[in-house]
């Protein structure tokens, strides 16, 4: 029978009773969930529910830039089955030195900046075992951070999400939380097995997404992406000599200490005057061109002044025409997030009706603005992610 609340003393007694019950429940939960050990983790999360606050590196293996190394050959046959997916990553060295039976991975140049809680999502095909070591290097701390992962699926394409901020361990054994906000990442590698251990392994990777969550922000309404097609965050490789190598196109890169509006993260793209016609533009070159997905969307962060409208378009190499979306009544002088659905809402510039189907290839992304009246117009773009949306 529940306790009766009659006077103040009774209320205090009930409060103490509930407090004791909660403490007992917390103790029971801790006993059921043993303390975590850095450097070790079992697969618990397959695919996150929500779109990340920030994606700071990604590789779908559909187009390789000259400086973005792949530690393995392209795989064209054994692939995750979904529209628009044409390439995965295999393994080149068997064994890998005297350390592992297999190794594959990527080097995301030019060292992207990490966020608050840093995670990795990937698709993988592992045959011959259920364990692997996932490792990536911090340019800021000059050491690798690794997680020995158990509970992987053997013999079919699967998904996994790992929390490096929570579970990663420095290879040199020093304590502390790896991958703090603002640290820069370098090589990512996966190791399977040991040389000459008598086992036959196979390993393939696809759709790597390195992302950061911010516990202080609400979850995005957009589901976690199926695949990242193109990513531009403008945070590293932004000096005058490096800009055209890492971020080809028509725009300037400014930082929050040198001209970016208040609220910028690190570097952002700034629109420049068009060589012909009115207004300003940002052109991001997607090189080499990439195949789009079944539902191709664009997410970006923008800061606009002197205008209330913007045209965003992507060049469809397959149809040899641009597809555009016109945005109206935009909020001025504040940073805003924007999602656009190019598969559903974009229109061909020439009026053609062909669908923006999975597998169509794209090679340029544009942002156009013109002044309202005689005002000076300025446009800043950041955190650009062209992606294949999750299938609902």
- Fourth-level CATH superfamily of the largest domain: Galactose-binding domain-like
**Main sheet: strands, sense, barrel:** 7 strands, mixed
How many beta strands in the DSSP annotation? 26
Q: Note the overall shape.
A: globular
Number of domains: 2
Overall structural class, as computed from helix and strand content, comes to: mainly beta
Share in helix: under 10%
CATH architecture of the largest domain: Sandwich
Continuous helix count: 4
Task: Report the end-to-end length measured between terminal Cα atoms.
Answer: 47 Å
CATH class of the largest domain: Mainly Beta
Uncertain runs are 1-18
Average pLDDT figure: 90
Classify the beta-strand content into a percent band: 35-45%
Order of helices and strands: HEEEEEEEEEEHEEEEHEEEEEEEEEHEEE
As for the CATH topology of the largest domain, it is Jelly Rolls
Radius of gyration: 24 Å
How would you describe this protein?
With 392 residues, this protein is mainly beta. The chain has 2 domains: 40-213, Galactose-binding domain-like (Jelly Rolls), CATH 2.60.120.260; 229-388, Galactose-binding domain-like (Jelly Rolls), CATH 2.60.120. It has helices spanning 8-32, 164-167, 243-246, 342-345; strands spanning 40-42, 54-59, 69-70, 74-75, 88-89, 102-107, 117-127, 132-138, 143-150, 157-163, 169-170, 185-192, 202-213, 227-232, 249-250, 252-255, 267-270, 272-273, 280-291, 296-305, 310-316, 321-327, 335-341, 347-348, 361-369, 378-388.
């Amino acid at each position: 029978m529940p306790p009766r609340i009659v006077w103040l003393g009774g209320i205090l007694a009930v409060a103490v009773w509930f407090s004791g019950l909660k403490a007992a429940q917390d103790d029971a939960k801790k006993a059921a969930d043993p303390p975590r050990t850095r450097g070790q983790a079992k697969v618990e999360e397959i695919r996150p529910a929500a779109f990340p606050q920030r994606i700071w590196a990604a590789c779908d293996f559909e187009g390789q830039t000259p400086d973005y190394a792949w530690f393995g050959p392209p795989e064209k046959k054994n692939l995750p089955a979904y529209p628009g997916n044409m390439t995965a990553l295999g393994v080149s060295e068997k064994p890998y030195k005297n350390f592992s039976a297999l190794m594959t991975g990527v080097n995301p140049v030019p060292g992207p900046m990490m966020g608050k809680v840093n995670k990795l999502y990937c698709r993988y095909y592992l045959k011959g075992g259920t364990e692997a070591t996932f490792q990536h290097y911090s340019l800021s701390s000059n050491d690798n951070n690794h997680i020995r992962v158990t509970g992987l699926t053997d013999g079919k394409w699967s998904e996994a999400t790992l929390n490096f901020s929570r579970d990663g361990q420095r290879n040199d054994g020093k304590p502390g939380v790896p991958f703090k906000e603002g640290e820069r990442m370098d090589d990512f590698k996966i190791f399977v097995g040991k040389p000459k251990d008598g086992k036959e392994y196979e390993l393939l990777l696809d759709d790597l997404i390195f992302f950061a969550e911010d516990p202080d922000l609400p979850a995005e309404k957009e589901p976690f992406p199926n695949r990242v097609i193109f990513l531009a965050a403008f945070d590293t490789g932004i000096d005058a000599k490096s800009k055209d190598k890492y971020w080809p196109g028509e725009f300037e890169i400014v930082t929050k200490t040198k001209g970016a509006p208040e609220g910028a993260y690190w570097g952002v793209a700034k629109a420049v005057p068009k060589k012909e016609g009115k207004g300003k533009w940002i052109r991001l070159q997607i090189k080499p061109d990439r195949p789009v997905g079944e539902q191709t969307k664009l997410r970006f962060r923008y800061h606009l002044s002197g205008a209330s409208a913007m045209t965003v378009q992507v060049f469809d190499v397959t149809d040899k025409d641009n597809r555009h979306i016109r945005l109206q009544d935009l909020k001025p002088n504040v940073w805003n997030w924007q999602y656009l659905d190019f598969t559903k809402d974009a229109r061909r510039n020439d009026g053609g009706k062909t669908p923006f189907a999975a597998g169509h290839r794209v090679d340029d992304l544009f942002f156009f603005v013109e002044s309202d009246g005689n005002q000076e117009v300025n446009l800043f773009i950041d955190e650009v992610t062209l992606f294949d949306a999750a299938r609902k």
